[in-house]
Amino acid sequence: MTHSEDTICALATAPGGALGIVRVSGPRAVGNVAPLFHARSGRPLDTTEPGRATFGEIRGDDGTLIDEVVVTLYRAPHSYTGEDSVEISCHGSTYILQTVLRLLTAHGCRLARPGEYTERAFLNGKMDLSQAEAVADLIAARNAATHRMAINQMRGGYSSELRQLRERLLHLTSLLELELDFSDHEDLEFADRSELQYLADEIDAKIARLTASFRLGNALKRGIPVSIVGQTNAGKSTLLNALLDEERAIVSSVSGTTRDAIEATKTLGGVTFRFIDTAGIRHTSDEVESIGIRLAFQKTEQADIVLWLIDASQATAQYDSLSPRLLPLCRDKQLLVLLNKADTLDAPALSAALGAVNARLARDGAHARDVLPLSAKTHTGIDALEAALTRCVNLDTLRHDEPVIANERHYEALSAALGAIRRVSRGLHGRLPADLLSEDLRECIHHLSEIVGEIHSDAILENIFKHFCIGK
Ligand SMILES: Nc1nc2c(ncn2[C@@H]2O[C@H](COP(=O)(O)OP(=O)(O)OP(=O)(O)O)[C@@H](O)[C@H]2O)c(=O)[nH]1
Ligand SMILES: [Mg+2]
Prior knowledge:
This protein is of the alpha/beta class.
């Protein structure tokens, strides 16, 4: 059964291409296109075979030839939306496409809202809500990692697993609630408590793994934040420019050149990194520079990866002056220590500097993933740094099809479900009565349902689909 009375139309492709595809969907899709389309074979549109391309012409009401096109017809429920649909491939002229849309609206179609095709697919049961959201992510994917996450999710990802757990939980909860109807028989237990505990543990483990993956998923989606910190003149801005291969930040021999935080993204090995060049750290009476330095520490606190840049010719002095403040910030982050300006040192001096920094890190109990020599100016060591950066991101979870959460709405629902299932566990241990257990069980079920969209409000749907493009 389809939910919608309206038949909608929209341009499904971006303007400027060689072809433009107009999509029509709804109960009168075929009927509304039929008067405009004249198949070369002379065959009426409603008798053409679904899924087969048919060549023909689009003509205006006065018979004017608008374009030669290829039309493909889909019959409910075997279409993207689950409704009757027609796709018209035209030449990519804005005039042609606008004319076709105008003819369609004159013949009973309405222009689609953003995401309306996917919303209909969801409402007609072609996909669950999390899969519909993955469609938007897929279109927005800019690198291999986000593409992988979106594809996994669109194919069912974790939602099918969550749906199964939810079904089992629902079954046990119903049994538990049956007990409430027989409350005069105190010993009566329909719902096996150890089975319930077993399921609660299973759900807990599953959701905890998913919520833990959000940090990675979210970082992959927005770009993994990498802060570049160090003393003034260490070469931070030179490094940013070298990584980006463009003159993004001002470089000069004047201390305190960078005052604001400068962000730029770059994709390495299928992962997008968000590099943040910051103001060099030093004592200063300059008000603006002080604000920049505070911001540098703040950005470092928020980063997943920290590139600590040290001028190799002053390695120990720079290490000692910044380590007390910087190392505590890096405790739960990936730290790469870079000895820059390696070109100014001979080999023995450079290895002495590396040795001294390594010894100090060990003394301070600090864990750096790598300590690398570098010359940001001559680009020596940039390849090794890029390789080290990609090693910092554990993509194995993605490669092994282990689901990764990148969607904030899912993360929030999962966190709430996790809280509820943990209260259930505690309640079982404390032998709480069925009515109290059932409250938390219902809450857990509610939040699991939110993810797949079994429970949704118009506000939730509107919020999700407004971020889609028109025609999807
Ligand atoms: N020889 C040599 N000079 C470098 C290297 N990297 C940077 N420099 C020079 O060091 C000076 C400072 O470079 P910046 O990139 O502006 O340093 P910064 O750390 O961003 O400095 P602030 O923004 O003031 O904190 C410039 O004169 C650069 O040309 C390097 O690898 N080798
Ligand atoms: Mg700078």
